[in-house]
């Protein structure tokens, strides 16, 4: 229940703080006094969007704060799921800054409007004359029936399974589509993969093959150069080796005379050893060099194959070709698994569908059994509200379609008078009749489900006299189990409240303000008398007001 509402700088309200109690509270006031402003402020607390026109003083921020006692609402899981601090006395605050920016807080933790709206559904239910039209909505009608037959748990189980069922069907449809699209590419991808696998590519082999190709392709000139080098090195008279030896002998004769000559000898000796190794390597290279046209042809073919594959796949290295090969392997492997995945999903969908069918039968049977009970209760309550001949024709018919709340289609027809045909609520019920039906529905739901604080905004439009008294009595009875507010112009209803608040305008200088005041007993008599007789209050109106209150 809401315990406190504070408003600062909103519409015609400069500053207001009011406490509310449990039970049945009445809000009255002349047209234009500011009742809609109070509802607008509550709407902001419940997550409705705001704009700068809401600010009374455009230079200051607007603050609306509401305290709620929620210990009996079982909302701790909601707070935990949204990472919020749970407090039995929860505070919701909305701020509208002069810049137009809006902020929302739950127990001083900033939240977005979606979280605020979700929490608001558990806290306050505002019903106006316009919202009575919701009764014509099939989903609303199903919720009424399901509340009466205690279907909520099985419907939640059905909805959870339906969500999974639809997700599986969506996955399967994507796989089937992918399979159809991939089938066209599978043959070509398999061809490309086989082509790469047959090439037996290895990382780094292209560079080695290109080196071997150059050797074999130029074997004659290489052989000639190696042999010429060996001849120059090994010539007996003028060969490099022989000349190095002679230099070494000459330097040995003078090495002892100076460190410079000794160092030259060491360098010559090292050079002789290094050149001796070079000569040995020239011999080995010459011995290994073979003119092999067949090997050259094989290497040429392999290189040409690599070059063709690189050109085909628009890459420059063997490593890139190997990456493409891996991707093609994954693609072909994935295509092979799609059929298996489709088969698994098909089985899962069939199993979930069978369970959904079982749940939908339970939901349907519960509805069918509860419809006579709901109809009887509606007729009984509406008879006291001046509709003695009202009749309902409610049928839940099975279908093969999985709807969000079962497999039923609902026929919710209504007749207000004897001799008239049944018709849809929105077509045959008047505004006053819709108001009374809405009140009857809420009265019934209050017995079967935990409703939040209910605010009836002039739901009594179109009724008067004894019917208004009965409506007040019904709301009074509902308030024994929940907090009820009624914004009304009818004194018969106003007299039934446990607390009576009046909305009025006051003028201070050039400034007009809306205020909300809790009326004392004597003030309440005057307010109800004024509702009965107008501005000039007669003695009979005062006596009538006292009688209504008593």
Folded structure, characterized:
By secondary structure, this protein is of the alpha/beta class. Among the domains are: 1-129 and 451-519, Rossmann fold, CATH 3.40.50; 179-336, no CATH class. Helices cover 57% and strands 19% of the residues. The protein is built from 17 helices and 15 strands. It is elongated. The model has no long low-confidence stretch (mean pLDDT 87).
Which runs of at least 5 residues are low in confidence (pLDDT < 50)? Answer: none
| Annotated CATH homologous superfamily of the domain at 1-129 and 451-519 | P-loop containing nucleotide triphosphate hydrolases
Shape: elongated
The assigned CATH architecture of the domain at 1-129 and 451-519 is 3-Layer(aba) Sandwich
Broad CATH class of the domain at 1-129 and 451-519: Alpha Beta
Q: For the report, how would you describe the main beta sheet?
A: 6 strands, antiparallel
Gap between N and C termini: 27 Å
Structural class: alpha/beta
Tell me the number of strands. 15
- Rg estimate, integer Å: 47 Å
**Side-by-side strand order of the widest sheet:** 2-1-4-5-6-7
Residue share in β-strands: 15-25%
Assign a percent range to the helix content: 55-70%
| Residue-averaged pLDDT | 87
- Give me the CATH fold name of the domain at 1-129 and 451-519: Rossmann fold
Number of helices: 17
* Quaternary state of the chains: single chain
């Amino acid at each position: 229940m809401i315990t406190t509402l504070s408003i600062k700088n909103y519409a015609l309200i400069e500053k207001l703080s009011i406490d509310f109690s449990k039970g049945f509270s009445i809000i009255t006031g002349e047209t234009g006094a500011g009742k809609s402003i109070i509802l607008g402020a509550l709407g902001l607390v419940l997550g409705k969007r705001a704009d700068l026109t809401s600010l009374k003083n455009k230079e200051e921020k607007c603050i609306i704060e509401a305290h709620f006692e929620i210990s009996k609402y079982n909302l701790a899981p909601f707070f935990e799921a949204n990472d919020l601090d749970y407090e039995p006395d929860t505070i919701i605050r909305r701020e509208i800054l002069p810049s137009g920016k809006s902020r929302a807080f739950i127990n001083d933790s900033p939240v977005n409007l979606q979280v605020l709206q979700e929490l608001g559904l558990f806290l306050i239910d505002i019903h106006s004359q316009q919202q009575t039209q919701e009764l014509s909505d099939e989903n609303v009608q199903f919720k009424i029936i399901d509340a009466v037959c205690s279907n909520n748990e099985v419907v939640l189980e059905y909805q959870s399974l339906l969500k999974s069922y639809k997700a599986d069907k969506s996955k399967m449809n994507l796989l089937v589509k992918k399979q159809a699209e991939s089938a066209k590419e599978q043959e070509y991808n398999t061809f490309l993969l086989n082509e790469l696998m047959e090439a037996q590519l290895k990382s780094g082999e292209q560079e080695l093959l290109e080196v071997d190709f150059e050797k074999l392709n130029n074997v004659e000139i290489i052989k000639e150069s190696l042999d010429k080098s060996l001849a120059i090195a090994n010539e007996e008279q003028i060969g490099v080796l022989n000349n190095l030896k002679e230099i070494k002998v000459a330097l040995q004769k003078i090495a002892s005379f100076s460190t410079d000559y000794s160092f030259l000898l060491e360098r010559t000796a090292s050079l002789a050893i290094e050149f001796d190794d070079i000569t040995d390597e020239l011999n080995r290279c010459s011995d290994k060099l073979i003119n092999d046209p067949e090997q050259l042809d094989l290497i040429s073919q392999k290189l040409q194959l690599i070059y063709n594959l690189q050109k085909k796949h628009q890459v420059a290295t063997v490593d890139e070709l190997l990456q493409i090969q891996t991707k093609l392997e994954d693609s072909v492997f994935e295509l092979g698994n799609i059929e298996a995945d489709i088969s698994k999903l098909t089985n899962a969908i069939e199993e979930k569908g069978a369970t959904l069918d079982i749940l939908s039968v339970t939901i349907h049977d519960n509805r069918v059994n509860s419809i006579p009970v709901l109809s009887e209760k509606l007729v009984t309550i509406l008879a006291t509200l001046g509709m003695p001949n009202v009749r309902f024709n409610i049928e839940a018919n099975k279908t093969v379609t999985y709807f969000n709340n079962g497999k039923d289609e609902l026929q919710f027809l209504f007749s207000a008078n004897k001799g008239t045909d049944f018709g849809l609520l929105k077509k045959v019920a008047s505004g006053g009749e819709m108001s009374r039906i809405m009140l009857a529905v809420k009265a019934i739901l209050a017995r079967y489900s935990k409703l939040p604080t209910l605010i009836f905004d002039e739901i009594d439009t179109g009724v008067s006299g004894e019917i208004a008294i009965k409506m007040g009595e019904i709301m009074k009875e509902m308030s024994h189990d929940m907090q009820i507010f009624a914004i009304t112009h009818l004194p018969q209803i106003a007299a039934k409240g446990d607390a009576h608040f009046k909305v009025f305008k006051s003028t201070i200088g050039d400034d007009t303000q809306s205020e909300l005041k809790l009326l004392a007993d004597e003030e309440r008599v005057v307010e109800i008398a004024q509702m009965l007789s107008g501005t000039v209050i007669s003695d009979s109106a005062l006596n009538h007001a006292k009688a209504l209150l008593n």
